[in-house]
């Protein structure tokens, strides 16, 4: 089963709600991300940023609303039913197939510690996309070189610094040739001096025209790389627009208060 | 023991009081208590060894004669077979039970829980006798469609002989314990690993075999080897079925010759040998699964021996000129 993802990656989030017990984490989120653009999501912790990101690639099931990638519903399928239509939950294997169109980079890297850097990158294209290992290895080496770690291919994650691990994780996500890259606070677990390396790689990808949604606290990065900045608070999008508007001339009180604290 | 500065040759005059501290001789701390304890234990060991050698009732000549006697070797082989087959059966079934317990189906969870509950509750010796007497409950075993026609029918007694009953009893009992060991190993793997695998779209079965189980092995192996060692000795319980494994064979021989103690020593020696082999294997298996979990792998015993020998030789070689060993 070889999937050749067509490059566009238009992400549409409509009326998404999600609760853990009585606590509402997402209280109706609408967001559109155009192909080839970078969206940076800002907001205080607990505002639902990570949950939104995890809902987009269906790591979290939403309670209400939907997410679509290039017009295709994520996690569900429309089926005619008695003259109308119904949504059918996708089987796990179909969800897994859909996920290969998203690349996900975690705050805690989540590299596979028992596999070398190269094997971390090679694993999914072979086992999830059924591609030839020899071909994937060549591509994986090129990706490791792209993130500046060509000579670390044989190293195990624990032998790498945090910044290096996160760059391997980015190469791992890219190996799936995803339409959209999702970053969940990619630099929050790093020493300040290592943050630059990782952000450099992400900005490089942004210039290459990869569609990205980045949850981060790095305002400088948002200013340099974002086409669109989204500010979230208490499970809602409070304000959104181009960086110069949201960051320099925020309209909403909560945005102003947040920016005053982090800047 | 290393010293901070080159040790001056013996007999030199102490340096003047205002010498910088980095040129002074370092005197290692003394441990008189440790020396006393070492002496006491050494004397105790000598007493034990002395009695083992000088007391004629150990009958070491009989031990030596029977150690490699044909029926004993056959008994050892049966013990090895029983252990290996039941260990494989126990851990295979245990892994299935652990995955059932962790599955999202309430029925699978309940069945797995129930299995562990029953098989851990009933004493092994009782289970063995039950399996051996299965033919009383079911004279023949039919293979076919559930509640439907049967394709083949086998006489229970011919299928479950002594060896079969022993394998079934030990294996099914072991599976209940193995299931918990495997489950503990799986639970010890970080949840983020599954999320990463899921976000990469890795198929579910592959997530388990390639990502979770290899990492779980680090927690599983030490306890699993414990179980295998327990099995080696635990197989002696099947003497109740009069199956000719090591312990039963030894009993038969001393029943005939009345040389009870030397024969028990023969069995003990073999159990020690078998356990030693498993312990050595354990070291290398653990080392294999430590890849990635530690920054550098610990040296193998052989490598360690070599380093110690070279270091020891270097120390001996450096003595005459009075330089400190490094």
From TrEMBL, chain A:
Membrane topology value: Peripheral membrane protein
Keywords: Amino-acid transport, ATP-binding, Cell membrane, Membrane, Nucleotide-binding, Transport
Positions of the ABC transporter domain: 11-259
InterPro entries in UniProt: AAA+_ATPase (IPR003593), ABC_ATPase_HisP-typ (IPR030679), ABC_transporter-like_ATP-bd (IPR003439), ABC_transporter-like_CS (IPR017871), MetN_ABC_transporter-like (IPR050086), P-loop_NTPase (IPR027417)
GO molecular function, one term: ATP binding
Entry GO terms, CC: plasma membrane
Location in or out of the cell: Cell membrane
The keyword ATP-binding appears for this protein: yes
Protein family per UniProt: Belongs to the ABC transporter superfamily.
Protein name according to UniProt: Polar amino acid transport system ATP-binding protein
UniProtKB/TrEMBL annotation, chain B:
Gene3D superfamilies found in the cross-reference section: MetI-like (1.10.3720.10)
Membrane-topology annotation of the record: Multi-pass membrane protein
GO molecular function: transmembrane transporter activity
Location, primary (coarse class): membrane
GO biological process: amino acid transport
Signal peptide: none
Cellular compartments annotated: Cell membrane
InterPro entries linked: AA_ABC_transptr_permease_3TM (IPR010065), ArtM/GltK/GlnP/TcyL/YhdX-like (IPR043429), MetI-like (IPR000515), MetI-like_sf (IPR035906)
Top-level lineage group: Bacteria
Coiled coil stretches, renumbered: none
Any Pfam family: BPD_transp_1
This protein's UniProt keywords: Amino-acid transport, Cell membrane, Membrane, Transmembrane, Transmembrane helix, Transport
GO cellular component, one term: ATP-binding cassette (ABC) transporter complex
Transmembrane segments: 35-53, 76-100, 112-132, 228-248, 260-285
PANTHER family for this protein: L-CYSTINE TRANSPORT SYSTEM PERMEASE PROTEIN TCYL, MEMBRANE COMPONENT OF AMINO ACID ABC TRANSPORTER
Record-stated family: Belongs to the binding-protein-dependent transport system permease family.
Protein name, as recorded: Polar amino acid transport system permease protein
């Amino acid at each position: 089963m070889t999937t050749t993802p067509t490059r566009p990656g238009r992400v549409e989030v409509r009326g998404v709600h999600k609760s853990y017990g009585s606590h509402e984490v997402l209280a109706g989120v609408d967001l559109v991300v155009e192909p080839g653009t970078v969206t940076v999501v800002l907001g205080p912790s607990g505002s639902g940023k990570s949950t939104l990101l995890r809902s987009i690639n269906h790591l979290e099931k939403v309670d209400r609303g939907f997410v679509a990638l290039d017009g295709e519903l994520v996690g569900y399928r429309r089926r005619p039913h008695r003259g109308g239509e119904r949504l059918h939950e996708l089987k796990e294997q179909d969800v897994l197939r859909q996920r290969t169109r998203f690349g996900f980079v975690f705050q805690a890297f989540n590299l596979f510690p028992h596999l070398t850097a190269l094997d971390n990158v090679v694993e999914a294209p072979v086992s999830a996309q059924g591609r030839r290992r020899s071909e994937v290895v060549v591509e994986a080496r090129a990706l490791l070189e792209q993130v500046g770690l060509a000579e670390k291919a044989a190293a195990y994650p624990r032998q790498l610094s945090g910044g290096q691990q996160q760059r391997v994780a980015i190469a791992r996500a890219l190996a799936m040739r995803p339409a959209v890259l999702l970053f969940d606070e990619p630099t929050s677990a790093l020493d300040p001096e290592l943050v630059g390396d990782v952000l450099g790689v992400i900005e490089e990808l942004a210039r290459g025209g990869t569609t990205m949604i980045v949850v981060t606290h790095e305002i400088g990065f948002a200013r340099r790389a974002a086409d669109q900045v989204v500010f979230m608070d208490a499970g809602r999008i409070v304000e959104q627009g181009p960086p110069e508007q949201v960051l320099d001339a925020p309209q909403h009180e909560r945005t102003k208060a947040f920016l005053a604290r982090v800047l | 023991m290393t010293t901070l500065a080159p040790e001056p040759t013996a007999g030199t005059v102490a340096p003047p009081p205002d010498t910088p501290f980095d040129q002074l001789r370092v005197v290692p701390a003394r441990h008189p208590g440790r020396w006393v304890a070492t002496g006491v234990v050494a004397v105790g060991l000598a007493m034990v060894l002395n009695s083992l050698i000088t007391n004629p009732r150990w009958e070491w000549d009989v031990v030596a004669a029977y150690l490699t006697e044909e029926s004993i070797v056959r008994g050892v082989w049966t013990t090895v077979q029983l252990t290996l087959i039941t260990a494989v059966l126990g851990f295979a079934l245990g892994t299935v039970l652990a995955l059932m317990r962790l599955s999202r189906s309430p029925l699978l969870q309940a069945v797995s829980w129930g299995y562990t509950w029953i098989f851990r509750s009933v004493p092994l010796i009782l289970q063995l006798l039950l399996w051996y007497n299965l033919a009383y409950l079911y004279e023949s075993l039919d293979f076919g469609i559930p509640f439907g026609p049967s394709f083949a029918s086998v006489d229970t007694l011919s299928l479950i002989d002594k060896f079969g009953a022993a394998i079934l009893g030990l294996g099914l009992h072991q599976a209940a314990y193995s299931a918990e060991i495997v489950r503990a190993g799986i639970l010890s793997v970080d949840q983020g690993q599954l999320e990463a695998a899921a976000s990469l779209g890795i198929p579910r079965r592959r997530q388990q075999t390639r990502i979770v189980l290899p990492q779980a092995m680090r927690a599983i192996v030490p306890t699993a080897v414990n179980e295998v060692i327990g099995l080696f000795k635990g197989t002696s319980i099947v003497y109740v079925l009069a199956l000719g494994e090591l312990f039963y064979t030894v009993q038969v021989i001393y029943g005939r010759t009345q040389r009870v103690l030397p024969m028990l020593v023969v069995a003990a020696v073999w159990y020690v040998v078998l356990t030693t082999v498993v312990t050595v294997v354990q070291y290398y298996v653990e080392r294999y699964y430590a890849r990635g979990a530690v920054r550098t792998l610990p040296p193998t015993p052989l490598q360690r021996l070599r380093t110690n020998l070279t270091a020891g030789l270097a120390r001996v070689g450096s003595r005459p000129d009075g330089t400190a060993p490094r």
